Structures are given as structure tokens and as C-alpha cells.
Amino acid sequence: MIPCGVWARRALNEISDVYRTNQFKARIGWASSMGDSCLRRLKHTLDQPGVHIMISLSRWPVVLAPAFTASSIFAADISSLNIAVTSDWNTGHNGEITFTNTGDQPIEGWTLSYADGSTLNQAWNCQWTLESGRHIISNLSWNETVQPGATISVGFGADGPFQTDFTDAMFNGEPVGVLYNGEDDGDDGNDDGNNDDGNNDDDGNNDDDGNNDDGNNDDQSSGCIGDADGNGTVDVDDLLLVINDWGFCTGCPGDLDDNGSVDVNDMLVVLAAWGACPDVGPGDKRIVAYYIEWGIYGRDYQPADMPLDKITHVNYAFANISDDGRIAIGDPYAAIEKSYPGDTWDQPYRGTYNQLNNVLRAEYPHIKTLISVGGWTWSGKFSDVALTDTSRQIFASSCVDFIRMYNFDGVDIDWEYPVCCGMGSNTYRPEDRENYTLLMAELREQLDMAAEEDGRDYLLTIASAGGVDKLENYELAEIAAELDWVNTMSYDFMGAWDLSLTGHHSPLYPNPDNPSPNPNVRNFYNSDGSVQPWLDAGVPPEKIVMGVPFYGRAWGGVNATNAGLFQQANMVPPGTWDDWSSGATGINDYSEIAEMIESGGYVRMWDDVSKVPWAWNPNAHGGHFISYDDPESMQYKMDYINDLGLGGAMFWEVTCDREEDLLNVIHQSLSD
């Protein structure tokens, strides 16, 4: 009797050869003559309800789908087209088509086409035409180049039910295989909209695929998706690892998506990545920009000034909470009343909302926008909103109505902070910790119901505290399970509210020379310290988006010892945008700090332990110390994000980097 592992290796080797030869029926005839029990095991492994692999295994013996013939997986620079349903309803569905460049050279321009399949009525992140019964999908200018290892996603809307007969698929003129993995009819019915896998942002922005959500597997030595044994090649050995580990299994090599279960999704990861692992950089990740509503005034920074070609998501700051516990527009003039060129008197609304969500969306269809609620100033009512089932339902319902009315793609909650430590006028309760999770669960449920009705995905995120002491007031794992991702506010760790000690307001790592009497400040008030609690709680790294500042914090009247670092101060110096109402803030835009250093009056210093700079002028303001980030420190932070497999970077805020020095580092580091 041939051992199961021996014949399975032989069978899988021969099955994989279907992509190189036209001898498929003969090979299946050989494989089907092997042991019934092992054959059933292999069939069960590959043949899952709702999943069609490049070789259709929905019946036995296996029959090759006629559209895909010899070498289809190897003729192009991609392994397959992956077609998935992202949402469906009675009369139609939305879906996405993704592909990954598995070659070692960039793809410069791409066109894919196919016959049959779902009846499309629209498509985004691409140019789409229907010619002689063939759907033809090609790149836009911003996604024309596909670097090795990068993934492209295009979205589509279609009439009727999802079809699994996409035939005669071609990529840049070469035949290519098709995978179908978006159907729910063999699973628990909760994958499309209940956020159970933590990746509910299949929005065409490459967030899920580019973040390696299906194969992060940080334990792999090669860092290659699908390479379960870490030998630099995705091959039969990796398929066998998946088969051998089949079932519930924590930390197993075959659990490529790190969800605690080895299943067909892990098999699909292997098949989609078949071949030698390319030597690639980071995949596309989220680049989340905060846009401030008040930027239209003194800063004169309009929505069209944003470099949206370098951003994936825009968080619009901020909406308020009304006295009756509903979301409310912050500044109605800025948001919906201000007229821009092209506006008319009879349109439903004007202002920044219309510019961002309608006008600019046409030029940058990849952008997703979220309305951020709260912030430092407007967090006072969150405790009341989160208190009861009724108050949570009212608030969540109002958020759904709000994003539908103004065409936002989701909601970002910026509660500063549950239980304690925000503005003194805020309402606080000990039960805020648990109630915050319940509030997010209610929002998640209502957003998912709306998504199903509207045929589009709606996102839910939060801006979380950076301080480890404040994070004790979050149910980290529980709240993250309800979210698409968490934005960590990994900044404002030190500032001129405390004149007894200068220091870095956003260090990557702690500096043991910091003499603060507070052990949290010394050891954990840093970017790493703001991320690790989430990881320690078991939150998937791709659901953590690390925040970085585009501004600095300064002290005046600083002792000149050590060029002002870790010294006493005696005043708050002026900031970039101070006015009569703010007084001196000590907050400077990065653009202004760069000009200060370029002028020669300030010296740039570097802390090689914390991996951040500071600026020092012994003559200005009685000794001017400014903590900030520059391109060098930003690169260290982007390397940290990539090394840990985090979901991307968030920054506060876009008006502070007029020359895009910092954003360029982020964009180049997180986008292929």
C-alpha cells in the first residue's frame, strides 16, 4: 500500500503540471486510480463548496475548464485572476477582480479580458468596456505599473446572482486561470459584511490583498505569500503542509492566513502564489490622511490641494455629536455650504463634503473617505452615546444616514478618551471600556446591513490612544474584532503642557536617558509602545495602522545642556497657526520646521536610540527645542510598519507637509 503522503506528493506534482501541459485527462486518470481514502482527502481539501480552483474539482474525475489550457499560469506575469463577491442582494451584487504580479519585473500597463461571467453594469479602479461579448478591463494612470509582488484590485457591480463561468480569460494577450473565492454558500454566511475575518475593506484599494491578509505569516523565513515551508518556492511541499495540517490549528505552518484554521483559503493562497518567490518590497498598504475641516480658512488648504494620488483613505475631521446623541456636522459652512467652481445653487449640498466625496472621487476613484467623529474637542458626549442599547442604536443609525446622505465610505470614531484623560468637561464612566466595544458592535451591525442594502462596503475604524496607560481602558481584542482597522495615535507623548521636561513627542523607541519620573513615559510612550499592546492582545498586524505626526511640538526657555533634550523649559513658544483664541501652542507644521533648519538658525540633532530628530536654536525664545519627524525618521517608521506587517500608516494631518517630503517617504515605502 503506497503511503498517502507519497502518492499525494506524486498526484499534486502531476496536477500542478497541468499548467504546463495539455495532458490533463491522462494525468487525472492516473491520480484517480490511487487509494480511495487519500483521494477523498485530497478531493475534500481542494473541492470546497463555493470555491473553484484553476482546475475545476467540483466533480470527480477532474475535468479541466475549457477556457484554461497549457501553461496558463506561467505564460503571463500573474498566477491567476481572483474573482470574489464582496456584497450581494436580491437583484445584483458587487465584486472584485484581483491579480498579483508574480514575476520579477514590473508590469507596465495591463489589460485583462474574459467572456461570460456576471452581467456587469459598472466597474471602478479601471477602464471597462464590453466588446463582442468580451469584458475588457484595463489600467488607469495611477495603477498602470504593477511592481513584482504587488496586487491590483478592480471592483465591479453586476446584475443578478454571481456567476462562476468567467471563460476564455486573458491577461495582456495570454491565457490565464481564474479562482473564485468570494462565495459564501459553504461557509458560515458571515464573510461578506460581518467583518469576521477582520478584513472587511474589499473596496478596490488593494488594502486586503496588498497587506498580505491572506498570507502575512510573519514566521515564514522567505516572507513569500504561500511559502509555508519558507524555502523560497511555493510548490508541492507547501500544498502537502496545508493538507497535513488540515483543520483547527494554531501556529501551524499550513495556516497561511493566521486565522487558527487550515482550510481551503490556505490552499488558495498556495495555488495563487505558485512558483519561485520574487524578491519584492512591501505591498500596497493603507495610507490614511486626516483632512481638517478648518483648513479651508487661514491655512487656505482646500480638498483639491490634497495629493490624493499618494493616499488611499481620507479621514475628514471632524463631525460633532448633538445633544440628542446623533452625529452632527461640525462646521456647516465649510462642510456643505461653501461654493466651489462648478457648484450650482440647486445641488443637494456644496462645500468640502461635495468636493471630497463627489467631485474629486471622479478623478481619484480609488480614494475612500470616512467621517471622523469626535476628536479632542468633541468627545464629551461619547460616554452618554455608548451607555445603553437605545443610545447606541440611535447614534449608529444616525451615522448610517449621515454617510448615505453625504456619500462617505465609512465612519472613524475618535473618542478621546474612554474612562478618563480627555478634556475636563467630558463625561466619563468606568463602564466606558466595555461600552466602547458595544458601541462599535452596534455600528458594525448597522453599517453591514446598510452595505448589503446599498451594494457597497462601509468601513469602520477608530483613532486609538497612544499611551499604554490609556489603552488599559480599551478591550483591545474585542473592539478590534468589530473594526476594519485601528489607527494608533502614536504621537503627543510629550509636549509643552509639561514644562518640567523636554523630549520626543513621537519617538519610535524609548531612550533610557529619559529622566521622566513616570515609568510609562520612560518606557512605553513611543510608537512601538503604542502598537505592541494591540499585537500582544492577538490583533492581526494588518488591522493596525500606525499613526505618525506631520507636525512638531516645542518648548521655550530651554536649558542649553544636551542641545535642549531632556531639559527643563519655562514657556510655551508660538506655533505655526496660533491666533487670539488659541494663544501660544508650541505646535509647528513640518513645513515650517524644515524652513527653520534651512535658514541656518536651527540645528538638526539626531537621537539614534529613539530614531527621531529634534531642532535646536539656543537664541530663539530663550532656547527653542522642537521635537518632530523628518524624512529620515519617517523612513525608520515605515520600515517598522513593513517589518511587523502592519496595515499601513495614518498621519495627522495633510496640511502640515506642503512640499510632501514626509508623504513621499510614506508613499514610496508602502506602495510598490
Q: How many helices in DSSP terms? A: 19
Second-tier CATH architecture of the domain at 303-489? Alpha-Beta Barrel
Approximate strand percentage: 15-25%
Q: So what's the overall shape? A: globular
Structural class: alpha/beta
Q: Based on DSSP secondary structure assignment, what is the total number of beta strands?
A: 30
Tell me the strand order in the biggest sheet: 17-18-20-21-22-23-24-30
Average pLDDT number:
82
Describe the largest sheet. 8 strands, parallel, barrel
Give the termini distance in whole angstroms: 50 Å
> What integer value in Å does the Rg equal?
26 Å
Identify the notable features of this structure and list them briefly:
19 helices, alpha/beta, TIM Barrel, 27% helix, disordered N terminus, 8-stranded parallel β-barrel, 5-stranded mixed beta sheet, 672 residues
Could you characterize what this model shows?
- The strands form seven sheets. An eight-stranded parallel barrel has the order 17-18-20-21-22-23-24-30, surrounded by five helices. Strands 5-9-2-1-12 form a five-stranded mixed β-sheet.
- Among the domains are: about 1-65, no CATH class; about 305-490, TIM Barrel, CATH 3.20.20.
- By secondary structure, it is an alpha/beta fold.
- Helices cover about 25% and strands about 20% of the residues.
- A hairpin with a 6-residue loop joins strand 28 (about 610-615) and strand 29 (about 625).
